[in-house]
Amino acid sequence: MERTGIINEKDKDMVTEPSPEVIRIPKVIAVTSGKGGVGKTNVVANLAVAFASLGKSVVILDADLGLGNVDVLFGIIPKYTIEHVLLGEKKLSEVMVEGPLGIKILPTSSGSEDLTNLSAEQKLIFLSELDELEKGVDVFLIDTAAGISSNVLYFNTVAQDILVVATADPTSVTDAYAIMKILSKRHGEKRFKLLVNMSRSLRESKEVYRKLTLVSDQFLDIAIDFCGFIPQDDYLRMAVLEQKSVVDLYPNAKSSQRFVEFSKEILSWPQKQFPKGNVQFLWKGLLGDPSETKA
Ligand SMILES: Nc1ncnc2c1ncn2[C@@H]1O[C@H](COP(=O)(O)OP(=O)(O)O)[C@@H](O)[C@H]1O
Ligand SMILES: [Mg+2]
Hints:
By secondary structure, this protein is α/β, with parallel strands linked by helices. It has helices spanning 40-53, 70-73, 82-86, 92-95, 120-134, 150-158, 170-187, 202-219, 234-241, 246-249, 254-267, 279-287; strands at 27-32, 58-65, 97-98, 104-109, 139-143, 161-166, 191-199, 223-231. Strands 3-4-2-5-1-6-7-8 form an eight-stranded mixed beta sheet, sandwiched between helices. Helix 7 (170-187) links the parallel strand 6 (161-166) and strand 7 (191-199). The longest helix is centred in the middle third of the chain and has 18 residues, at 170-187.
């Protein structure tokens, strides 16, 4: 089994325990966009299947359940959400649903404001459950909701990498810029990955990248890495209708091939500094440190 918990000398100071030699630090990637309907959920689901077929253990946090998301794509109807765990009604293992190839899906509902208002006890229960989950995870993909609610922004800031999905549609480009602007100005995010979806050509996708960097170079202090494109593909739409991922159903489709290539590229992205991207760290940040809970 491949180990991803390797850190370099300069990161050593940040590590408390357990020793990084024995834990695998998952890659935490938030997939985001300003606008809905650009293909975030399809990107998440197909990358998940691609990673899983490469033997990686994958967890998807579906941060926008009920709105045509991961559950719908995999044809799964979850009974419970993370909220049930937080209320102490269910265990994380009971809430988690299994998709194809052992992909684990953690459903949340869109009204997750509760997440910030938990008692210290609730936080501790939840964090200890996550301790278990985290151990074997290679890739943790977060399908963020569209828009800029505080949870959406937070999910982005705890991920190691923020993958912004945009299409060549001018409103999508404007909205991609808007989300990067907020994340950089309010949350100090400096680096983004751009994936252009439903593109007709490399040229068209490069044009999206060019437009975005033209404005961001002028007004924002950020770097955007161009990750290429996923083609506009009827096979993907057909797969959606079948409630399957295109990578699974039509592995030879153009979009499937590109998802698989892209998943390999992602695995070669450098592992960011510990502990950013550590799942427990993610939740601690979102929920607040239990010891600091206000009465
Ligand atoms: N590469 C693609 N080629 C063709 N259609 C696509 C592609 N990506 C997404 N779609 C279509 O767009 C719809 C919306 O995608 P979805 O992943 O649900 O977007 P989001 O999660 O950003 O709201 C899908 O149901 C699918 O029909
Ligand atoms: Mg979606």
